[in-house]
Amino acid sequence: MHVHILGICGTFMGGIAALARAAGHRVTGSDQNVYPPMSDQLAALGIELIQGYDPDQLKLKPDVVVVGNVMSRGNPLVEALLESGIPYTSGPEWLARHILAGRWTLAVAGTHGKTTTSSILAWILEYAGLNPGFLIGGVPGNFNVTARDGGGKYFVVEADEYDTAFFDKRAKFVHYRPRTTILNNLEHDHADIYPDVASIQWQFHQLMRMVPRNGMVVANAGDANVMHVIDMGCWTPVERFSSGTQGDTAWYIAVEPGGDYSSFAIMEGERSMGEVRWSMVGRHNAENALAAVLAARHAGVEISKAIEALREFKGVRRRMEVRGVVDGITVYDDFAHHPTAIHTTIDGLRRRIGKARLIAVLEPRSNTMKLGSHQEAIAGSLAQADRVWLYQGPGVKWDVAASVATLGERARTVNDIGALVAEINDFATAGDHVLIMSNGGFDGVHGKLLARLRERSTG
């Protein structure tokens, strides 16, 4: 089969391309921005890439066109596709029909932590010898690829609630029909398609309708929005977890007071099921780990084996990833872009570094951030940082500086990357930790800052 993919350089669609190629299909694709590293990864798989969306690419006569959700009506290629009669489908639907059918799907859903939790879960299953397939919206350090078919019956999928395609406005995850489902948390996000939390909960409710009675829902009992989804209707056994005691039967995390969560105990009621010691920090990551352990347990992995796997978990790229250290200044890259994720990421790093100076650098880049939906929560999410820089890009029309006015002189807003790098370079000293947060490339600011610091060091 010849599969042609529109929007192929996105993480999800690039993963679809890799899975289709591994299944023996001829794969081609196009995107508005074809550039490394995704272009290199796809080319290495023998996938032909086309720059842009010229309708002439339909002359390839593919058997099916897989349409990414970046495509919309009015695009010349989309209009030509609709007129051509060539079969087309969405990425989630293609995945469900050609990869997930007949397999035990473990879906990881929630506003925050999907990529990390999916990566942990896939690694636990791998460590247990189950050879899982997976499709993850990031690069797990234990695998160094975003997707693989695997040889076993299990498949881990990061279950995104964003809409499927221009012709299918349901959440992506409703296509996956999982047997095991994790609901990590639920907040208002994707404000470009969801007006409020209730509209997102309705989509999560559709997911609950598809989990079978012999399945399992692993749900965060400490999240009222998640529990409301369960109360809306759930026909599947529910395993509840939290970061604190939630009744005699709940699974929860026990940690030393003031601990950074690099070590914690997994508890069931009053009984400790084992001590985790790993390279990650932060309560959110401990919750991610506990959810993954419980999901793996449903697939038959003993908790003791899962804890062994956690000790060898290597993290995920762009999740508090150290990009470099120059003259004692550590520069991190993190995907945090929602106020809750920003807060938990900063809190985790603060617990690790203690009283060392923490410099937070934020690009409000997501569609929700650009709309200003979370502007009132930004200052609070950054409160534990010693100094803050925010970049007001051209797509952000609201007053970023005003949103962090309560931080006083600790916060600076700039609209030029060069100026941003220069100011941080002038301010940072040995022992500082510079945490750069964005859900995009941030114009390569990490590398530019490290290069500037090296120039300062050798100059």
From TrEMBL:
Residues 2-100 form the Mur ligase N-terminal catalytic domain. One of its GO terms (biological process) is cell wall organization. Pathway: Cell wall biogenesis; peptidoglycan recycling. PANTHER family: UDP-N-ACETYLMURAMATE--L-ALANINE LIGASE-RELATED, UDP-N-ACETYLMURAMATE--L-ALANYL-GAMMA-D-GLUTAMYL-MESO-2,6-DIAMINOHEPTANDIOATE LIGASE. Keywords: ATP-binding, Cell cycle, Cell division, Cell shape, Cell wall biogenesis/degradation, Ligase, Magnesium, Nucleotide-binding, Peptidoglycan synthesis. It comes from the Bacteria. It catalyses: UDP-N-acetyl-alpha-D-muramate + L-alanyl-gamma-D-glutamyl-meso-2,6-diaminopimelate + ATP = UDP-N-acetyl-alpha-D-muramoyl-L-alanyl-gamma-D-glutamyl-meso-2,6-diaminopimelate + ADP + phosphate + H(+). NCBIfam families: mpl (TIGR01081). Residues 318-440 form the Mur ligase C-terminal domain. This is UDP-N-acetylmuramate--L-alanyl-gamma-D-glutamyl-meso-2,6-diaminoheptandioate ligase. GO terms for molecular function: ATP binding; UDP-N-acetylmuramate-L-alanyl-gamma-D-glutamyl-meso-2,6-diaminoheptanedioate ligase activity. InterPro entries: Mpl, Mur-like_cat_sf, Mur_ligase_C, Mur_ligase_C_dom_sf, Mur_ligase_cen, Mur_ligase_N, MurCDEF_pg_biosynth. ATP binds at G110, T111, H112, G113, K114, T115, T116. Belongs to the MurCDEF family. Mpl subfamily. Its EC number is 6.3.2.45. It holds the Pfam family Mur_ligase_M. Reutilizes the intact tripeptide L-alanyl-gamma-D-glutamyl-meso-diaminopimelate by linking it to UDP-N-acetylmuramate. SUPFAM superfamilies: MurCD N-terminal domain (SSF51984), MurD-like peptide ligases, catalytic domain (SSF53623), MurD-like peptide ligases, peptide-binding domain (SSF53244). Residues 108-296 form the Mur ligase central domain. Its cofactor is Mg(2+).
